[in-house]
Each structure stands twice: as C-alpha cells, then as structure tokens.
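Sanity check

After download, print the first record. It should look like this:
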Amino acid sequence: MFRNHLADNRGMLFIHDVEEPLAYWMKNTLIALDIFYFDSNRRLVSVSKRTPPCALGDDCPPYRSDGPALYVLELNAGAADRLHVKKGDRLTFAPDIPSAPSPRP
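Expected structure tokens:
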C-alpha cells in the first residue's frame, strides 16, 4: 500500500498460513500490478493482470484466485504478459525463502 514505484525485476511475495481461495484488493495502492496466486506446490492457480490502482478505500473490488492458493506474488503490471505465464507454471524460490509457512505454536 501507498507505493508509487516498484523497481523492475522486483516484487512482493506474501506467504499465507493456510492454502485456501484468496482475494487481494488494491486499496491505497498507487500503481497497477499483476497479482499471481500459487498453490502449496507453487503451481500457478491464476493471475489478475494489470490490476488497477484503487482510491475507493473499503469499496475497492477484490481480485480472487481461481482456486486455493498459499503464495501471492505481486509484480509490476505487464509482467505476466512479458513472462508468458500460464496456469500450472511453477514458482521457484531462492534458497533464503521458506518453501512452506512455519507452524504456529
């Protein structure tokens, strides 16, 4: 939220505690993004392409995954087309990113 720039080849990765259908919104987001939803096997479930900024506060629309997801990756709008992604593509993590959420005590 409140970002007015995301550097090329950079993104934001969100790791959820539970794999389930997810919905993200663009509340207070100032730039268009592609939102990638991945399941627990890191397979692409769906992409919301060129998701527009929203200044409507709690009235911003949700962008839902097409199925259960555990990981969400946000990249600059247009990245999905440049990368030619398709459903089922696999997300590969760098060694310092956990492959699954840590269990809660």
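If your output differs, re-run the checksum step. Summary of this record's structure: Residues 15 and 71 are 5 Å apart (CA to CA).
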